[in-house]
Amino acid sequence: MTILWTAAEAAAATGGRATTDWAATGVSIDTRSLAAGDIFVALTDQRDGHDFVAQALEKGAAAALVSRVPEGVASDAPLLIVEDVLPALEALGRAARARSRAKVIGVTGSVGKTGTKEMLRAMLEVQGHVHAAERSFNNHWGVPLTLARLPKDADFAVIEIGMNAPGEISPLSQMARPHAAIITTVAAVHIENFENIQGIAREKAAILDGLEPGGAAILNRDIETYPILNRRARRLGARIVSFGAAGRPTYRLRDAQMTEDSTQVEAMIARQPLLFKIAAPGLHLALNALSALAAVEAVGGDVAQAALALGQWHAPDGRGARWTLSLGSQGVDGTVLLIDDAFNANPTSMEAALGVLAAIAPKNGVGRVQKGRRIAFLTDMLELGSEAEAAHEGIADLPVLKGVDRIHCAGPLMQALHNSLPHDKRGEWHPSAEKLASRAGRLLDAGDVVLVKGSKGSKASRIVDAMLKLGQATRADIPRAFEDGEG
Q1: Nearest to residue 319, comparing CAs of 168, 471, 464?
Q2: Which of 19, 236, 239, 461 lies 20 to 30 angstroms, CA to CA, from 259?
Q3: What predicted TM-score, i.e. pTM, was given to this entire model?
Q4: Residues 6 or more apart whose Cβ sits within 8 Å of residue 52
Q5: pLDDT tens digit string along 382-411?
Q6: DSSP 8-state code for residue 206
Q7: pLDDT by residue (tens digit) across 433-446?
Q8: How far is it, in rounded angstroms, from Cα 446 to Cα 428?
Q9: Domain residues of the chain, as ranges?
Q10: CATH (residue range 100-312)
């Protein structure tokens, strides 16, 4: 494998002291996923990473980045000793970025960051060597970790940048120094930490602070806070590229049609028509795709080739991934289509996910109930501040609910939705996701299409896990079992 860091390089980058001469092929913060040859970074967060250094070295870590020699570790073990581990990881990330020849794209936004990052990965993999985090590493340690892993020979890098509170995005952007920066959208997410949505917009606009000279600011023209983003971009001298469906953005969405397994998109790019297919259903994906195409063009990629790659793109786990569950021994009890959107939730993404559910036809005549159903299992949307109860109640008024047959809820906030639902759509309510998960097997039937959606902190993933254990589960990127279903 290619050497990522030598002891001398890492010591020079961090100002630390290497105890031995070593060479590493990767960087890890978790012994559970550590590969032989990685530098193990002993971060102190919920637990002290120094407690796991010995285990990491036993698993084949090339070295450990530490602020002291941990108990039970020999003084001549391969270590990089620094004053403070997190700033050292940040320094390692900055050094990797400084030596890289890659064109860097930064992605932020209230909704759609990870999906857009994965679209960019698919678009750029056919055009060069792409580096992007495998998971949603977008916070104060995730961004420097992603940068520290940046291979010297990468052609492109996609860096996802998130936030929970004011002041978090700017330093991460200045670390990543993107050549193009996408702001997918601005919505009332993490609103409890901000005075209003305008404050969220200003924080999202801070991704532009790190833009390389002449870099592109790729902005959503459709949102009400666009003027805030536009002003920040102009003040910083960025090249503004807009996308959207209204007005005359650079990348304009003319039409999007959703089928059960894809989204057909018609767009105009600087007065030139472009037709392409996304291999996943969701009208919201069309705008994300346009922002990604704009970024590809901004870093010198081939837009037509990128658009073709979307025909093979599939939603990541927890963000719209689809599974076919074969129930009973060897699937004799039929199948259920599961949409796993359990990683996070807010009012904007909740409406989009329910729209996807409503568009997929269940299969009739195969289960106990005879008529296949569209069923949602929803857990609390968190960090909505004083608007939380109203936001949950408001789901009951969404037009897309006309296409949903039954909604089961979990959590104290989702009780507001449960009480607001019409009787024919009201399913069960339970105080926790774990309790609703325990009921999953009794609430599903062959032929059903099922959505699980909720904030990570409300443990919607527990419901997905319970469902995946009901039978044999296979990824259903093209759900053939439902192709001839009836609506």
Answers
A1: 464
A2: 461
A3: 0.82
A4: 31, 40, 42
A5: 888 888 999 999 999 999 999 999 999 999
A6: G
A7: 999 999 998 999 99
A8: 19
A9: 5-84, 100-312, 321-479
A10: 3.40.1190.10
